[in-house]
Design brief:
alpha+beta, 5-stranded mixed beta sheet, 4-stranded mixed beta sheet, 8 helices, globular
């Protein structure tokens, strides 16, 4: 056989081996990410329910309705642009659904709002936003936290906002509403069937409850553990995406 044929054969074997190695690495990362996510879920179930207390903390936990915790508002801004209104950016359903933390740099939806809406639907550091309706019951009550004041932003009419009366730890606000207890409440108390489910503001205020530690330092300690777990998972997911892109490039050469 000719030398070019032999070289091509060798290259094909090497390429196959490289793809197999990439597949093995991707599979290993996927399993590790799944394991880390399961560990985090277990930690949340223990730390956010008071089942396991961190060393040095013995303060009380309390259960309150969201209406007792803060001001719950809906009736946000629509997605239209009107020449007689003020240009603003919108915190919309997908921002809340896909993110746990909302930063100014992540908001790109441009709309307009009336002056009264700028005040009533403003976005301030520590505000907690919820999805009040969806096609699936368990997609209701998904939450995200504003990590900074965003003066030129308002929340969408597809989003509800909780502005706390109490001084909770900032990161803790992002995790306490991710418990199974809270998601079960929103899923079972929403109204509708088939195509659309909705959780009205009265239910949000008066029937949804959250169980939490009153000690701000305990809140911060719990949140830091979960935040560090998320950071580790995000790092692994970035590595996974990198190797998936490398594999895709190998397959196209």
């Amino acid at each position: 056989r000719s030398a070019p044929y032999t070289e091509c054969l060798k290259f094909g074997v090497l390429a196959t081996d490289a793809l197999a190695s990439a597949d093995a690495l991707i599979e290993k990362l996927e399993k590790l990410i799944e394991k880390k996510k399961n560990i985090k879920q277990g930690a949340m179930q223990e730390l956010l329910t008071g089942k396991r207390r961190l060393p040095g903390f013995s303060g009380k936990w309390v259960r309150k309705t969201l209406g007792k915790l803060g001001d719950v508002t809906g009736s946000g801004v629509d997605k239209k642009i009107r020449p007689d209104e003020v240009p603003v950016r919108l915190v919309n359903f997908l921002d809340v659904f896909h993110k746990s933390f909302i930063y100014s740099k992540d908001l790109h939806h441009q709309v307009t709002a009336r002056p009264d809406q700028l005040l009533r639907c403003s976005v301030k550091k520590g505000d907690i936003f919820f999805t009040p309706s969806s096609e699936m019951p368990f997609d209701i009550g998904i939450s995200a936290i504003a990590m900074e004041d965003i003066p030129d932003a308002v929340h969408s009419y597809h989003v509800d906002r909780l502005r706390l009366f109490e001084d909770w730890d900032l990161l803790f606000r992002a995790y306490i509403f991710q418990t199974k207890d809270f998601s079960n409440q929103t899923a079972t108390q929403c109204e509708g069937s088939g195509k659309r489910y909705v959780l009205n503001l009265t239910t949000f205020r008066e029937r949804l409850t959250v169980y939490y530690p009153t000690d701000n330092k305990e809140q911060a300690a719990i949140a830091r553990i979960l935040f560090d777990m998320d950071a580790e998972i995000e790092k692994l997911e970035a590595q996974l995406a990198k190797y998936q892109n490398i594999k895709q490039g190998m397959m196209q050469t």
